Each structure stands twice: as structure tokens, then as C-alpha cells.
Amino acid sequence: KAGVTQTPRYLIKTRGQQVTLSCSPISGHRSVSWYQQTPGQGLQFLFEYFSETQRNKGNFPGRFSGRQFSNSRSEMNVSTLELGDSALYLCASKGLAVEQYFGPGTRLTVT
Amino acid sequence: DQQVKQNSPSLSVQEGRISILNCDYTNSMFDYFLWYKKYPAEGPTFLISISSIKDKNEDGRFTVFLNKSAKHLSLHIVPSQPGDSAVYFCAASALGSGAGSYQLTFGKGTKLSVIP
User: Fold this and answer.
1) Residues belonging to chain B with any Cβ–Cβ distance to chain A shorter than 8 Å
2) Quick check: helix, strand or coil at residue B13?
């Protein structure tokens, strides 16, 4: 079974711009979650999508948004980028078991 | 308020010896606990989990122990190998706000170095 894939792997953006990251879950997994990893805060939960609906959301500002398509692929969008948004963004997919399986991440640098 | 804490940022162990990674939590509603391993420039890899109704789960060289009264869990790796050198994250699962949603809360990780 192919794992979770994320594109792009690396991205450099300027403050004020917006960015869209993409995630393809493991085949058959309907839940996709997004996390932000920074050196100071560790892994923080952004949101979870299931069957095209957001069913859980972390404590992040409205500039962070996402969506899920009918094939379970998901995108997250960050608008009006700030320097503090520089991080590794991880996508994880989940089937019926409790564990989530992570992709390699997208390294976003905001200058 | 950090609900999952890994108080040791780093740990060094000789090859062949036991590695013990610790994790403490505060939320009594957590019902599953998981350990992940992470290499640089890769996403976390799931290692092992334990339900809150159990006190031990074993998978090969990896064993997780849960002490609910102390709100403490630990991951034992025996014997430790150089390839085990990575950052280990403890995570806890609880029902999220949406129906059927399980949210993982992570500790900040412990960097394990296994010395040949």
C-alpha cells in the first residue's frame, strides 16, 4: 500500500502571500488531519477532515483553512503569510484503527 | 497548558542496552496512547500504541507500559540499536469535538542517540 504523500516538499514564500499544500492519504483512509511542527511548539493539531467535512479544529487563526475532496485528498491553505508560519506541515491519514499515518511533510519558509 | 509532557529532551544509550523513554499526561479523558519515531526530514512513523484499559503492550523490541494512577507511560526499547537513533514522540488520543473524531495531542519529543 502506498503511504501518505504530500506536495510540494519544500516551499519558500514571502510575507503576505498565500500558500496551498496538498495531501493524498493512504488508499481507503477517509480521515485526514493536518499538523504544524515548529521547534518551539512541537506538533500542533490544525484540523481534521472526514468525508469532505471538517469535524475537528485546533486553536489556529482563521488564516488557516482546509478542504477535502471526494477522493479523500486534502488541501490546506494559509492566507496572508506571517514569518511565524514557517514550519513543517504534516498531513496524517487514519483508517478504522486509532493510529494516524504521516506523510513526509511540507517545509514552508516565509521570508 | 501542556497535556502531554516529555521531560527529557535527549537521551544517550549504549548499543545493546535498554532505552527507556518517558511521558506524562494530565488529561484523564485520553483513551489511547501512541509512540512515534521521527527521523530528520521525514514524517513521524507509528511504532506502538496502548489502550487506557491495558498496562502493557509489546511488539518485538518495543514495549509500552502505562501507569494510569500516575498518569505516566514509558517506551522500552531492548536491545537498542544505532538505527533507533531518532526523535521519539509520545501522543495521546481523545475524542475531538466532532462526532467520531479522534485528536492526537503530542509531547515535544525526546531525541534518542544510540552509541555504537
Assistant:
1) 32, 34, 36, 41-46, 49, 89, 91, 93, 96-109
2) strand
Nearest-5° Cα angle at A59, B98 to B38 = 90
The whole-angstrom distance between B50's CA and the closest CA on chain A is: 10
In this structure, what DSSP letter does residue B58 have? E
The set of residues, in sequence order, having a beta carbon less than 8 Å from that of B92 and lying 6+ positions away, is: B3, B4, B25, B27, B30, B32, B33, B34, B104, B105
User: How far is it, in rounded angstroms, from Cα B52 to Cα B112?
Assistant: 25
Q: Provide, as residue numbers in chain A, all residues whose Cβ is less than 8 Å from the Cβ of B94.
A: none
* Start-to-end C-alpha separation, chain A: 37
**Total Cβ atoms within 10 A of residue A50:** 20
Q: Which residue has the cell 502505562?
A: B66
Distance, in angstroms, between A24 CA and closest chain B CA? 14
Q: Cell digits for B55? A: 498496562
Cell of B101: 473524531
Phi, psi at B82, each rounded to 5°:
-55, -35
Collect all residues of chain A within an 8 Å Cβ-Cβ radius of residue B99.
55
One pLDDT digit (tens) per residue for chain A, 111 residues: 679 999 999 999 999 999 999 999 999 999 999 999 998 788 999 999 999 999 889 999 999 999 999 999 999 999 999 999 999 999 999 998 889 999 999 999 999
